[in-house]
Amino acid sequence: SLRRRGHPKTQDLLTMSLTQTSRRGSAKIVAAILFIAAFATDHASAIPPMPASAAPKTDQAIPQVPPTLASPQITLTTFLESMAKGDTTGLAAAATCFDSKSLPTDTTVRNRVMRDFANAIRWLGWDITTAKELPAGSFKGDQVQLFPASSKFSPQIQAKSSQLLAESRGDEWKVELVRSDDATYRFPMAAITASTLDGITDAITRMRRAAGDQPGTVRDLAEWMNLNAPEWMLGRVVFLTVWQWIGLAAIVFIGFVADLLVRLFMGRVLRSVLKRYYKPTDAHLIRRSARGVGVVVATLTWLTLLTFLELPLAGFSIIQPAAKFAFVLAILIAGWRLIDLFADLIGQHASRSETRIDDVIVPMARKTAKALLVIFGLLNLAPILGLDLGPLLAAIGIGSFGLAFAFKNSLENVFGSVTVILDRPFLVGDW
User: Fold this and answer.
1) Residue 105: partners with Cβ closer than 8 Å, 6 or more residues away
2) At 177, which helix (H) or strand (E)?
3) What are phi and psi for residue 241, nearest 5 degrees?
4) How far apart are CA 392 and CA 394, in angstroms?
5) What gap in Å lies between CA 373 and CA 338, rounded to an integer?
6) Which stretch of DSSP H or E encloses residue 146?
7) Is there a contact between 197 and 113 (Cβ–Cβ < 8 Å)?
8) Residue 165 above 70 pLDDT?
9) At what angle do helices 194-210 and 107-123 cross, to 10 degrees?
10) Which of 112, 120, 100 is closest to 320 using CA atoms?
11) What is the pLDDT of residues 228-242, one digit of tens each?
12) Euclidean distance between CA atoms 404 and 54, whole angstroms
């Protein structure tokens, strides 16, 4: 039995005991040894073996560092090249160079922040060539400071940094590339704070104006005004310069004029076209619809022209989303009124026809169109208000199974009504 269990030490012990003892007490000794050997064998088999040296696992998931953010030099090069493209793809690539929570949610405001930041670091002397002064892929530090510049950078960058420090009047602006937990290097939130970035942009503009700096091609109206306008137009009232207040008043006036012209034009067109075919008697619906279209054009005018004023980021981040919210809301109001207008006109035409199926379809089409319009409005207003609809849509998708069972009878009635309308077994007015 011991031999079958494969316990060599117990077998040796048993052999030695049997040869060294007399036959007179051998039975008792053998019984005792067999009990001890069985006990030791059972417990020895329960002891786990000694762990072998663990070999390194090669199948573990190693986080992949994006090649465009692998080092301070590569991140700065990626940002400058992406901003130079200026298209949607380039701006999206430039946004990856910042901390995910630092950029504004509004697309227009986000692009403006990145553009002002890019202009500031370019003025400091950072470009594709000078980016090579930053550490490359072998760098293992946690951060690299671009501004204020240290003595290890070129004299030109140090000189620009000293000028901006003196002109910014103590504004605490620091530009760093910080190593994240995923081993990538990005610009932190402190580098693009709206109030600080506004102060840096104003300081650079003053130095360019004092030095007589004139770009080869004027990028926009704001740059031309800041470099060439009289001094009195650059004075600040509240938080805007004088020329920006003048431009803001002009934009509001242009929007009201566009609203008036579109309202008059749409009113005449709708009256002449609709009277020719349907002869509507309710002129109030036509006026309300034309007024709604005019408001859409006015808000679109304000939304488009506001970008030319280069308002400070602290105010632009509020005014731009507010103008976009007003534009989407104007579309909802105008669409609601146009649906009522065309549904009323089609309903009048249906009332004069012999078939009564259209008397049922027209009200259903009106309600369906309004429901789709409300969904469109919610999907466009939610991002402006900073609401993420992703979790809500996921929850609705999961909960739709429960709703299907809860509203089983109601859904049956909805599909049953559609079947009644299509098959036409009876119509409105039947008894």
Assistant:
1) 383, 386
2) strand 175-179
3) -75, 170
4) 5
5) 11
6) strand 143-147
7) yes
8) yes
9) 50
10) 112
11) 888 888 888 888 889
12) 54
Contacts of range 228-235, beta carbons closer than 8 Å, 24 or more positions apart = none
Question: Is the bond leading into 148 cis (omega within 30 degrees of zero)?
Answer: yes
**Residues forming beta bridges with residue 143, ordered by sequence position:** 178
Total Cβ atoms within 10 A of residue 22: 7
Residue 315, classed as helix, strand or coil, is helix
Question: Cβ(37)–Cβ(2) under 8 Å?
Answer: yes
- Strands 236-237 and 240-241: what pairing? antiparallel
| CA pair distance 382, 376, nearest whole angstrom | 10
* Percent of the chain's residues with pLDDT above 70: 72
Task: Report which of 303, 279, 291, 383 is spatially closest to residue 337, judged by C-alpha positions.
Answer: 291
pLDDT in tens, 288-347: 888 999 999 999 999 999 888 888 988 888 888 899 999 999 999 999 988 888 888 777
DSSP string, 241-304: EHHHHHHHHHHHHHHHHHHHHHHHHHHHHHHHHHHHHT--S-HHHHHHHHHHHHHHHHHHHHHH
DSSP state of 152: T
- Shortest CA distance to 278 belongs to which of 220, 351, 333? 351
The first and second tokens of residue 429, run together, are: 């007015």
- Give residue for tokens 């929007």: 255
Q: Which of 278, 369, 361 is nearest to 332 (CA)?
A: 369
Angle in degrees, CA 127, 130, 131, rounded to 5: 75
- What is the H or E stretch that residue 164 is in? helix 155-167
Using DSSP, state whether 135 is helix, strand or coil. coil
Which residues lie below 8 Å from residue 62, measured CB to CB, with a gap of 6+? none
Number of DSSP helices (H) and strands (E) in the chain, helices first: 15, 5
Q: At what angle do helices 313-351 and 107-123 cross, to 10 degrees?
A: 150
Contact 97, 71 (CB under 8 A): no
The dihedral built from the CA positions of residue 188, 192, 193 and 196, taken in this order, carries a sign that is positive
Q: Of how many residues is the chain composed? A: 431
| Residue 1 three-state SS | coil
In whole angstroms, what is the distance from residue 41 CA to residue 391 CA? 60
pTM for the model: 0.70
Band of the pLDDT at 410, cuts 50, 70, 90?
A: confident
In the chain, the amino acid numbered 384 is: I
Return the DSSP state at 187.
B
